[in-house]
Amino acid sequence: MKLVKVLLPLAAVGLIMGTSSARDIDGFYGKVEQMPTAENPAWVIGGKTFKVDQRTKIEHRRDQKIGVGSCVKVDGDLDREGNFFISEIEQKRDNRCR
């Protein structure tokens, strides 16, 4: 009986926390390995594949645009289903990706 008394409150906490709409993910730094194309809309950054949409904010430095080899920071959120959404890709100095 004691086990049930402990597990029920823990299950309730899990259900409450699981209902949040999104979870913020700390930034990921990496070099751009592949830019999106018409045939493949994915970005490959630091060995990871990311998809973006019209909501994604892309910030480059004043003196140059993001391209293959650029160091970037990726910020995003996990939705309730566990899918990663990129909210921002921001160009950074190369020393951040070493």
Describe the 3D structure.
- The chain is 17% helix and 43% strand.
- The chain is of the alpha+beta class.
- A hairpin with a 4-residue loop joins β5 and β6.
- The longest helix is centred in the N-terminal third of the chain and has 17 residues, at 2-18.
Share in helix: 10-25%
Number of helices: 1
Strand numbers in spatial order across the main sheet: 3-2-1-5-6-4
Largest sheet: 6 strands, mixed
* Total strand segments: 6
Structural class determined from secondary elements: alpha+beta
How far is the N terminus from the C terminus? 55 Å
Order of helices and strands: HEEEEEE
**Percentage of residues in strands:** 35-45%
What general outline do the C-alpha atoms trace? globular
Average the pLDDT over all residues and give the rounded result: 76
Which consecutive residue ranges, at least 5 long each, have pLDDT under 50? 1-22
Overall radius of gyration: 19 Å
